[in-house]
Every structure is written in structure tokens, then in C-alpha cells.
Amino acid sequence: MDGRPKGMESQRKDGALSDSANPSPPVLDALQLIRIEAVHRGFLYQHLYAVACLFLAQAAEVSAVIVERDEDIEIALSGRRIYVQVKMRSGLLSESDIESVIRRFDALRGEHGTGERIGAASFVITTNSAPGPALRARMVGDQWPSDASIIWPGHTGATDKAVPAPRPSVTAAFAQCAGLAARLPYALLAPETLAWKLAGAVMGAAAGNPPRADHTFRTAELPMLFEQLVVQQQELPAPPAVYRAHEHEPALDGAARIRIITGYSGSGKTSWVAQVSLHSAASVTYLDVVETPGPALASTVARELAARLFGGMGGALGELLLPGATGPEILTRIGIRLAAGGKQVTVVLDNAHRVPATDLKILLEQSEQFRFILLCQPGKSVRELEALLAVAAIPLQGGP
């Protein structure tokens, strides 16, 4: 024996297990696996394209986006509707790929013509792959319908602004969605997380699952959908059953509006704030910002504060969280409401050292009605924060 645990003899030097130790045996039919992957890749590409449609809907004055009903995607606008068929191919798009689509477009066009469907109609085939020579020739012929178009990466023509430009792959389509999500000033989550969550929502709608049994996303509800239907709120952590005070422990209600409390991981910073908040009359909002992107910090804190302070006051929350309002704008509105009532709020940001100091400064400067406690680990980022804010950090000492 060479000292390795039993059963690990097949471990290779690169850390991977050999086939004899791999719990997944080779597939019975490799071609079938390729076909299965292609089907799911196509559906994922389609779902991501629908997500891009959702991100563009408000700016394009779309009233609703419908998925997997009469067409892959239907975009409803005032007095008209765009029917979109999404195709993903590994090679050139051929005439045979679109024959059934053209027939379905003809049927839909007929219903609009007879008045069974209201408004004008236009038709788009969006694809990751360029059309082949025969299909290109057909597209410029006299028989090609004037209300239909085929778009592919780099060739979108004069497409309606409600119709996203197609991307060449699933990876590129996801990057497109994340880029569109990053433009939203009221998104709490990282753009990539929001894009994946919306892709899941589109998948559920395509299956007709409640609350979208009608397969429809209405543009009026998109701001709330982009916030994951509810404003997320983190509560203060529970204090420890037995708490041992630190030497020269600071109070929660200090004189300074901004305080930096430092201590290494495990030193008890979170326990300290949980314990001292029990004995404070201040309104305290706790946020762990360890995974919050710096540019999203002001928006995240603004919406947490709005939900905590005004979530139960009828329409007050909606007045603060106006679609398109930036984080600083929301914070300003909250500060005005607090000032009118003669109130202040203490905001505790845990792991604040993980956020760039410049992004923290933007948040801290918004209103005098907010008092901030920044829980940080000592290091270069804290020194930068001290210099930028002209605030000396207060270290948590050991027990007395």
C-alpha cells in the first residue's frame, strides 16, 4: 500500500478520477446525447432571447411579451404585434428550416386580415446562423412577404427596437442579457443573477406554470419582476446566547454619523452589533454586503431601507420605488421623509471592506438622516476608506 485511502488508487496526478472510478459510465449512444444537448441548447437560447425582449420592453413601449403560445415569442405593442420565431443552428439556416414557420406566419397573417386578431402584424425569424445561399436568394425575390424578415448576428436591418439583435451562441446571448440587466438602475441583484432568474421565469411561463398560465409578461409588472417580485430585506442577526463584551466596547449610538468598526474574521463584529442593538432605541437596518457589486450598493441599500421603513404604509413604498429611479434618488426621497418626521436611521453594513471605497462614499453622502456603521476587517481597503472619509477606524478589542 502507498498510504492512499482505499478506493483512491485510480486518482490521476491531475486530480481527476479515471474511468474506473467515475460514477458516470460512457453513454450508450453518443449521437443521441449530441441531439439532446442541441435541443436543450436551442431552448436555452430561445429563453435568453425572451429575457432580452423583457429588458427592452419598457424603452420600446411594449405592452406585453408572450412566450411559447402561437409563436416562440410575441411582442405586443399599441395597435400591432410582432411574431418572433427563434432558430439556433450549427450550420447555415436553410429553406427547409423555415418552411413550417412561413406557413404558420401565413395563418397568423390571415387572422389579422379578417379581424380575428386585432391590429397589424409583422413577422421575424431571428437566428444565430446566417441564411444559406438558396434562402438568401428567396429573401430578395418577389414572393418573399414584405412584413417578414430574417435577422442574424451582424444583419438586423431596420428591425423594430423591441426586437433584440440575435447573438451567435448561448454564451453570447447570456452576455447580452447581463449587459442589458446592468443598465437597470433599480436592480438589486448582480446583472448575471438577474438574467438567470428571469430565464427561469421565462421557462416557467413557457410551460404555462402559475402565475403565468397565460404565458404573458405584462410590461407594467416588469419593474417589480426585476426586483424578484418582492424587495429583499435582511434582518439583524440573532445575538449569541452568551455574549462577552469587548474591552472599551463602543456603543451603537455614537456621536459620529459614520463609524468604521474593525476586527479580524471571528472577532465578534456581527455579534457586537446584534447585542448592542438590543439596547438601542435607534431604528437599525443590517445588510451584509459581501456579495454586493459596488455600483449596485446605493440601489441595494435604498430599496432595503424603503421596504423596512415604508413597506407597510400603503402606497408610500411605490412612491419611493418609482421605475427608473436611481439608488441615490431613492435615498434622497427617503431622507426627505425621515427629516419631515424628525427621524434618523442607523444602517449597519457588514463586510464593508469588500466594497470599493468610492462606491461607499457615494452612499454615505446621500442624506444626513442616515447614520452608518461599517463593519470591516483591517487592511488596505480600510486604510483607503479612512483616508477618503477622514474617519478613524475603531478596533474591537479583546475581552476584558
Q: Please give the CATH architecture of the largest domain.
A: 3-Layer(aba) Sandwich
Give unreliable regions as ranges: 1-21, 228-234
Structural class based on helices, strands and sheet pairing? alpha/beta
- Overall geometry comes to elongated
* Cα distance spanning the termini: 53 Å
- The CATH class name of the largest domain reads Alpha Beta
Radius of gyration: 28 Å
- What is the average of the pLDDT values? 84
Write down the secondary-structure element order.
HEEEHEHEHHEHEHEHHHEHEHE
Strand order, sheet with most strands: 5-4-3-2-1-6
Helix run count: 12
Q: How many distinct folded domains?
A: 2
Number of E-state strands: 11
Q: Summarize the main sheet.
A: 6 strands, mixed
Helix content: 25-40%
What does this structure look like?
- The protein is of the alpha/beta class.
- The protein has two domains: 30-226, Trna Endonuclease, Chain: A, domain 1 (3-Layer(aba) Sandwich), CATH 3.40.1350; 258-395, 3-Layer(aba) Sandwich (Rossmann fold), CATH 3.40.50.300.
- It is 37% helix and 14% strand.
- It is elongated, with a radius of gyration of 28 Å.
Which helices and strands occur, and which strands form pairs?
Layout: H1 30-57, E1 64-67, E2 73-77, E3 80-87, H2 95-114, E4 120-127, H3 133-139, E5 148-151, H4 170-182, H5 191-206, E6 216-218, H6 222-226, E7 258-262, H7 269-276, E8 283-288, H8 297-310, H9 316-320, H10 327-340, E9 345-350, H11 357-364, E10 370-376, H12 380-389, E11 394-395
Parallel strand pairs: 3-4, 4-5, 7-10, 7-11, 8-9, 9-10
Antiparallel strand pairs: 1-2, 1-6, 2-3
Helix pairs in contact: 1-4, 1-5, 4-5, 8-10, 11-12
